[in-house]
Amino acid sequence: MGFLGRIFTWWNGATIGTALFTRRHGREVGRDDMGNVYFEHRKDPRRRWVIYSGSNDSSRTPPQWQGWLRGQIDGVPSAADSLPPRRAFEKPGQPNLSGTGETFRPAGSLSRGGKRAAATGDYQAWTPD
């Protein structure tokens, strides 16, 4: 991303203002597997933030780091921190897909043709008297 892109965009990485604030007041405390960088304020460690590598989407933040950002845990998460074992029915996390080609479109939505399934016999439409 070019210099002007960094000044005028907030949705990819950090703006120039955030980068300057981070350089002046922040202390890097860690990184996650997706390349996101986590910071805390040098004078007030309760102030915490993340600079995303790519789109600014909190669904791209792992659960351990979510807890740290919100002050639920004091210690910085590490690779040794483990989550409870994944259950058979759990799916891996996904980023927020709204506004992309992968957005969920249920049957009957306008983007899928707007055709709803016919009502079954257990449904009776309301009509005013």
TrEMBL record:
Q: Which domain of life is it from?
A: Bacteria
Q: What is this protein called?
A: NADH:ubiquinone oxidoreductase subunit NDUFA12
Ranges annotated as spanning the membrane:
none
User: Where are the annotated segments for Disordered?
Assistant: 76-129
PANTHER family, alphabetically?
NADH DEHYDROGENASE [UBIQUINONE] 1 ALPHA SUBCOMPLEX SUBUNIT 12 (PTHR12910:SF2), NADH-UBIQUINONE OXIDOREDUCTASE SUBUNIT B17.2 (PTHR12910)
This protein's species is: Sphingomonas humi
